[in-house]
C-alpha cells in the first residue's frame, strides 16, 4: 500500500540529483581540537591554565566519550570496510570540510562542532563557557576563508546569562547564522526557565537554535550505563535525547513564548510522526498539566521545528520508511544533513534516491536546499 | 428545520453545577445549570465516542502573563470526558485546548418550567 | 495520493469474529495479595503490618505530579460517573463488554511497579500472592486469560514460579515488567526466566509504567509533570529493552520465545528497527551475538500492542502507514481496559480497515493474540 500511496506523478518528479540547482547541507561538522581552542583563550584565563593541565586529552576536558569520532574506528560501510579516516585528535578545519563537501556535490553548508557537542556534559561551568567562546572565535577564523560555509555558534547551557552574552557578541558576524545548544546531557532539560536569557538573546538576534545529539550520555534523563556495546547506545541514545528535550521545550511552553526556529539534528527523522501523535494525545488528555500551550504540539512543530535527515538507515533495501516519514512530517520541515565529514553514507544522492518518486521536484529542492536557506536566512 | 426537545423540568436541577441527561429520539442530550443559566450539549465525545457529559465539571488552569505560574480559574464551566479527559466548554462546546475541536451544542430554552434543547 | 482500496475490506467491527484486548488490566489490592500468600513470606507480612505506608516505603515510584487523569475517572459526589472504581477484574470485564471487546489478556495495575520494589524477598512475595489471586479471579471469567508476573529481582525464583503455574488453563504468558528493569532485558541474568518461559511455551510480555522511574537507564528527574514523564517513559523502556534483548542475542539463545511489548503504541517500532539494522550493518563486530539482522528476529518473534495509538484524527492514513511499516502480522490490538488512556476497537479498526485485507485486519484485531497467547 505504502509504495503506491507515496508516489507522486512522474511529471512532477525530479530526474536525478544533477537536476537540483543547489544543495545546502544543514549539518556539516568541523572537528576542533583542544590545542586549537586553547589558542583562542586569553593567557590570563584560569580556565585556560587548568585545561592545559589535562595534557589536552579531550576525554579529560569533556565528561567522557561523548563525541562521535571516538567511535568511528568501530564503524564499517556495511561491508566490513572501515569508514574511519579521521582521528579525533586531528583538526578538520573549515577548508577541509568545504573540500569534502564539494566532492560530495554539496554547494553550501552550515557547520557544527564535534568535540563541543559534548559541551553540556562538561562538569566545570567556567570551562564550558570558555570552551564555547574559544570555539566560536576559532570557527570564525576558519570560516573567513570559506565563502560556501557558515556556522552555528555554540553556547554553554551551564550559564545561560553568559550564553546570552556570547550570542550578542557573535550574532552580527556574517558567518554566524544560528546557535548550537548541544542536545545531549542538557540538564535541566531545555524547557526549564533558567534558559530564558538564552532564548531571549536568540530571538532578539533572530537566530535559529540547532540542537544536535551525540552518544555516551552520562547525565540524567538517559544514561548509557548498562549498554553493553557501542551500537546499543547508538540505537536509542539520540532519539531519547531529542524526545526528552522536545517534550520539555513544548510542554513548558517555549514556542508559545518565543518566536524561534529549532533545528533538531543527529537522531534522524523516523521518530517524529510517532512522537507528534503522542505529544498531541497527551496534550488533549492531560491538558491540565500543559496550560503553557494554546494549540496542539503538532501545530508548533510544523510552524517552527525542522529535522535534519542524518543519519539515514542502512542498507536502504527498498525500505519505504524514509519516504513515508518525510511525507508524514511534511517536506517543508525536513532539512538535508550530511554529517560530513563524520558521516559517509548520508550523501545527497542517498536522500534524493529515497525521495525521488515520492516528493515533487519542488519539495525535493526544498529539502535539499531551500528550507535550510530559509531557516538560516542564507 | 428547528428541532426542539424537552429535556427536564427546572426543578429537577439541584442548583448550579447540576445536570440532567435525557434520551430523546435515540440521542442523549445533557443540560447543565451553570450560574443560573442552562446549557445543552450532546452526551457524546468527539474523541472516541465516550459519554462526555457523565464526566466531572472542572475549572481550568492557565498560565499567568509571564507564562510561568499556573493560575486556576475555579469557574466550573468545562466538562471533562470520563473516558480520556478531553475538556469542552459547556457554553460553546469547544475544547479550550484547541478551538477547532467541538461537540454539538443546543440552545437551552426555558418555557413554563421546562428546559428545551433547540437546534 | 491513491488510497489503494483492497478488494475485501471490512466495513464494520461487527464483522470481526474475535476482538482481543492483548493488554487488559486488573488491580489486585494489597489485601488481595496478602490474603493469597503462602507460608514463607512472614517477613513481608510483618513489614506490611508495621509500616505506616508500606506501598511507598518499599517502592521507589514517585510521579512528578498526581496522575490527574486517573483522579478524574473516579466516581464523584456530584453524580458524575467514572470509568471504574476498583479496577478489579469485574470492572475490567464490564469495560471490555462496553467497548465491544470479546476477550482479554490480563496484566496488573498496582503491581506494574514491581521492579521499583527494592527488597528481593518482598518482590518474590508479591509475585506469589498476586499470581494466586490472579488465577482465582480468572476462574470466574470465561473470556479472560492472564500473564503471571515474575520478579526480576530474583530470576531463579521467577523460573520456579513459571514452572509452578504454567499448566493453569488461564495463564497465557509471563509478564516481565519493562520499566525500571535493571539491568535491561538482554542481560544474561534473566536467562532462567527465558528458559522456563520457552520450555513451558509461554510468551514474555513486557509492560511499561508511565512515570516515576528512578533507576537507570531512563530517569524521571527533571520531568516537571506527569505528562512530561509519561510521554517518554513508555517508549523509552521498550526501546532500551528490545535493543538489549536483540543485540545481546536472546533470540539466538531462545529461538522459540516470543516477546510482546505493551502500552507504548507502535509508531516507534519502524524507527527502532531501522536503527537496529543500521547498527548491525555498520558495527558488525560489535554485534557478534546475532547471525541475521535484528529485523528478522523481530518479524519472527516480536509482537507490538497497539495502544495508545496517539492522536491521529487529523491524519488517519498516517496510522495505516505506520501499521504497514511494522507489519500487520506482528500487531496485537490492545484496549488497555479499563485504564484511562484506553483505545476502543474502532480507534484502530477505522484507521486501517480500508487499507488492509479482511484477513490482515482480523489478525491484528484479535487472531494474532489468540495465536500468540494460545487463547481458546
Ligand atoms: S472519548 Fe472522550 S476523551 Fe476520549
Please, could you describe this protein's structure?
Chain A is of the alpha/beta class and about 375 residues long. Chain A has a single domain, classed as TIM Barrel, CATH 3.20.20.140. Chain A is about 40% helix and about 10% strand. An eight-stranded parallel sheet of chain A has the order 1-2-3-4-5-6-7-8, with helices on both faces. The longest helix of chain A is centred in the middle third of the chain and has 22 residues, at about 230-250. The radius of gyration of chain A is 20 Å and the shape is globular. Chain B contains no helices and nine strands. In chain B, the strands form two sheets. Chain B has a six-stranded antiparallel sheet, with no helix packed on it. In chain B, a hairpin with a 6-residue loop joins strand 6 and strand 7 (about 85-90). Chain C contains 15 helices and eight strands. By secondary structure, chain C is of the alpha/beta class. In chain C, strands 1-2-3-4-5-6-7-8 form an eight-stranded parallel sheet. Helix content of chain C is about 40%, strand content about 10%. The radius of gyration of chain C is 20 Å and the shape is globular. The longest helix of chain C is centred in the middle third of the chain and has 22 residues, at about 225-245. Chain C: It comes from Halobellus clavatus.
State the gist of this model.
The complex is a heterotrimer of chains A (378), B (119) and C (376). Chain B is mainly beta.
CATH topology of chain A: TIM Barrel
Give the neighbour order of strands across the main sheet of chain A.
1-2-3-4-5-6-7-8
Multimer state: heterotrimer
Could you tell me how far the N terminus lies from the C terminus of chain C, measured between alpha carbons in angstroms?
41 Å
CATH superfamily annotation of chain A:
Metal-dependent hydrolases
Organism (chain A): Halobellus clavatus
Protein name (chain A): Amidohydrolase-related domain-containing protein
InterPro entries (chain A): ACMSD (IPR032465), Amidohydro-rel (IPR006680), Metal_Hydrolase (IPR032466)
Keywords (chain A): Lyase
Topology:
The complex is a heterotrimer of chains A (378), B (119) and C (376).
Chain A: H1 2-6, E1 24-29, H2 34-38, H3 46-52, H4 58-61, H5 94-103, E2 108-112, H6 125-143, E3 149-154, H7 160-170, E4 176-180, H8 196-204, E5 209-212, H9 230-251, H10 254-257, E6 262-265, H11 272-285, H12 297-304, E7 305-308, H13 321-329, E8 334-335, H14 348-355, H15 361-376
Parallel strand pairs in A: 1-2, 2-3, 3-4, 4-5, 5-6, 6-7, 7-8
Helix pairs in contact in A: 6-7, 7-8
Chain B: E1 4-9, E2 19-24, E3 27-34, E4 37-42, E5 56-63, E6 70-80, E7 87-89, E8 105-111, E9 114-118
Antiparallel strand pairs in B: 1-9, 2-3, 3-4, 4-8, 5-6, 6-7, 8-9
Chain C: E1 20-25, H1 30-35, H2 42-50, H3 54-58, H4 68-72, H5 89-98, E2 103-107, H6 120-138, E3 144-149, H7 155-165, E4 171-175, H8 191-199, E5 204-207, H9 226-247, H10 250-253, E6 259-262, H11 269-282, H12 294-301, E7 302-305, H13 316-326, E8 331-332, H14 345-352, H15 358-372
Parallel strand pairs in C: 1-2, 2-3, 3-4, 4-5, 5-6, 6-7, 7-8
Bound molecules: FE2/S2 (inorganic) cluster.
GO cellular component, one term (chain A): cytoplasm
Keywords (chain A): Lyase
InterPro entries (chain A): ACMSD, Amidohydro-rel, Metal_Hydrolase
Amino acid at each position: 500500500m505504502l509504495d503506491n500511496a507515496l508516489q507522486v506523478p512522474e511529471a512532477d518528479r525530479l530526474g536525478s540529483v544533477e537536476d537540483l540547482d543547489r544543495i545546502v547541507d544543514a549539518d556539516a561538522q568541523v572537528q576542533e581540537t583542544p590545542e586549537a581552542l586553547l589558542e583562542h583563550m586569553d593567557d590570563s584565563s584560569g580556565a585556560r591554565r587548568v585545561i592545559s593541565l589535562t595534557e589536552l586529552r579531550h576525554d579529560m576536558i569533556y565528561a567522557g566519550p561523548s563525541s562521535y569520532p571516538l567511535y568511528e574506528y568501530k564503524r564499517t560501510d556495511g561491508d566490513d570496510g572501515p569508514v574511519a579516516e579521521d582521528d579525533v585528535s586531528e583538526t578538520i578545519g573549515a577548508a577541509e570540510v568545504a573540500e569534502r563537501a564539494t566532492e560530495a556535490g554539496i554547494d553550501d553548508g552550515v557547520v557544527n562542532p564535534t568535540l563541543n557537542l559534548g559541551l553540556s556534559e562538561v562538569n566545570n561551568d567556567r570551562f564550558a563557557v570558555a570552551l564555547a567562546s574559544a570555539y566560536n572565535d576559532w570557527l570564525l577564523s576558519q570560516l573567513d576563508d570559506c565563502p560556501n560555509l557558515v556556522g552555528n555558534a555554540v553556547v554553554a547551557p551551564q550559564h545561560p546569562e553568559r550564553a546570552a552574552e556570547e550570542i550578542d557578541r557573535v550574532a552580527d558576524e556574517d558567518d554566524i547564522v544560528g546557535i548550537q545548544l548541544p542536545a545531549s546531557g542538557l540538564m535541566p532539560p531545555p524547557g526549564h526557565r533558567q534558559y530564558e536569557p538564552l532564548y531571549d538573546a536568540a530571538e532578539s538576534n533572530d537566530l535559529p537554535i540547532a540542537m544536535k545529539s551525540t552518544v555516551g550520555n552520562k547525565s540524567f534523563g538517559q544514561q548509557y550505563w548498562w549498554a553493553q556495546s557501542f551500537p546499543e547506545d547508538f540505537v536509542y541514545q539520540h532519539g531519547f535525547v531529542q524526545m526528552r528535550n522536545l517534550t520539555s521545550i513544548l510542554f513548558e511552553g517555549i514556542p508559545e513564548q518565543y518566536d524561534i526556529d529549532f533545528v533538531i539534528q543527529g537522531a534522524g527523522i523516523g521518530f517524529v510522526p510517532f512522537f507528534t501523535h503522542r505529544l498531541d494525545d497527551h496534550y488533549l488528555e492531560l491538558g491540565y498539566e500543559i496550560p503553557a500551550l494554546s494549540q496542539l504540539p503538532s501545530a508548533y512543530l510544523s510552524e517552527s521545528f525542522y529535522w535534519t535527515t542524518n543519519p539515514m538507515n542502512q542498507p536502504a533495501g527498498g525500505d519505504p520508511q524514509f519516504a513515508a516519514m518525510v511525507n508524514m512530517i511534511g517536506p517543508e520541515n525536513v532539512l538535508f544533513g550530511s554529517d560530513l565529514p563524520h558521516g559517509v553514507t548520508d550523501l545527497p544522492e542517498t536522500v534524493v534516491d529515497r525521495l525521488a518518486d515520492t516528493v515533487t521536484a519542488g519539495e525535493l529542492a526544498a529539502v535539499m536546499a531551500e528550507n535550510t536557506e530559509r531557516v538560516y536566512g542564507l | 428545520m428547528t428541532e426542539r426537545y424537552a429535556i427536564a423540568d427546572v426543578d429537577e436541577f439541584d442548583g448550579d453545577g447540576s445536570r440532567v441527561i435525557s434520551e430523546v429520539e435515540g440521542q442523549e442530550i445533557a443540560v447543565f445549570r451553570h450560574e443560573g443559566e442552562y446549557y445543552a450539549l450532546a452526551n457524546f465525545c468527539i474523541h472516541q465516542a465516550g459519554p462526555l457529559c457523565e464526566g466531572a465539571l472542572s475549572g481550568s488552569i492557565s498560565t499567568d502573563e509571564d507564562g510561568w505560574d499556573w493560575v486556576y480559574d475555579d469557574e466550573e464551566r468545562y466538562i471533562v470526558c470520563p473516558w480520556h479527559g478531553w475538556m469542552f466548554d459547556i457554553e460553546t462546546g469547544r475544547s479550550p485546548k484547541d478551538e477547532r475541536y467541538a461537540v454539538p451544542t443546543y440552545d437551552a430554552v426555558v418555557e413554563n418550567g421546562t428546559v428545551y434543547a433547540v437546534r | 495520493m491513491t488510497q489503494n482500496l483492497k478488494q475485501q475490506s471490512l466495513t464494520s467491527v461487527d464483522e470481526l469474529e474475535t476482538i482481543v484486548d492483548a493488554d487488559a488490566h486488573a488491580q489486585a489490592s494489597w489485601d488481595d495479595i496478602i490474603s493469597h500468600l503462602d507460608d514463607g513470606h512472614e517477613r513481608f507480612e510483618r513489614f506490611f503490618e508495621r509500616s505506616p505506608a508500606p506501598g511507598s516505603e518499599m517502592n521507589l515510584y514517585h510521579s512528578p505530579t498526581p496522575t490527574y487523569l486517573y483522579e478524574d475517572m473516579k466516581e464523584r459526589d456530584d453524580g458524575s460517573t467514572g470509568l471504574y472504581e476498583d479496577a478489579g477484574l469485574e470492572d475490567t470485564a464490564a469495560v471490555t463488554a462496553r467497548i465491544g471487546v470479546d476477550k482479554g489478556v490480563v496484566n496488573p495495575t498496582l503491581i506494574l511497579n514491581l521492579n521499583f520494589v527494592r527488597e528481593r524477598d518482598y518482590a518474590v512475595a508479591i509475585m506469589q500472592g498476586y499470581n494466586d489471586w490472579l488465577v482465582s479471579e480468572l476462574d470466574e471469567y470465561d473470556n479472560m486469560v492472564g500473564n503471571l508476573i515474575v520478579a526480576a529481582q530474583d530470576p531463579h525464583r521467577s523460573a520456579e514460579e513459571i514452572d509452578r503455574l504454567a499448566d493453569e488453563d488461564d495463564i497465557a504468558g509471563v509478564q516481565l515488567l519493562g520499566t525500571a528493569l535493571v539491568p535491561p532485558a538482554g542481560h544474561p541474568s534473566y536467562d532462567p526466566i527465558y528458559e522456563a518461559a520457552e520450555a513451558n511455551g509461554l510468551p514474555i510480555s513486557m509492560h511499561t509504567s508511565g512515570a516515576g522511574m528512578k533507576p537507570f537507564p531512563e530517569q524521571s528527574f527533571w520531568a516537571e509533570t506527569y505528562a512530561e514523564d509519561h510521554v517518554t517513559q513508555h517508549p523509552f523502556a521498550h526501546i532500551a529493552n528490545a535493543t538489549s534483548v536483540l543485540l545481546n542475542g536472546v533470540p539466538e539463545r531462545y529461538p522459540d520465545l516470543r516477546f510482546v511489548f505493551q502500552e507504548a503504541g507502535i509508531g516507534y517500532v519502524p524507527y527502532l528497527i531501522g536503527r537496529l539494522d543500521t547498527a548491525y550493518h555498520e558495527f558488525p563486530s560489535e554485534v557478534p551475538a546475532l547471525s541475521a539482522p535484528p529485523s528478522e528476529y523481530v518479524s519472527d518473534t516480536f509482537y507490538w500492542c497497539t495502544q495508545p495509538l496517539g492522536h491521529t484524527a487529523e491524519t488517519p492514513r498516517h496510522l495505516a502507514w505506520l501499521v504497514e511499516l511494522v507489519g500487520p502480522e506482528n500487531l496485537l490490538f490492545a484496549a488497555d481496559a479499563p485504564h484511562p488512556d484506553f483505545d476502543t476497537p474502532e480507534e484502530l479498526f477505522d484507521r486501517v480497515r480500508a487499507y488492509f485485507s479482511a484477513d490482515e485486519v482480523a489478525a491484528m484485531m484479535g487472531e494474532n493474540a489468540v495465536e500468540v497467547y494460545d487463547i481458546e
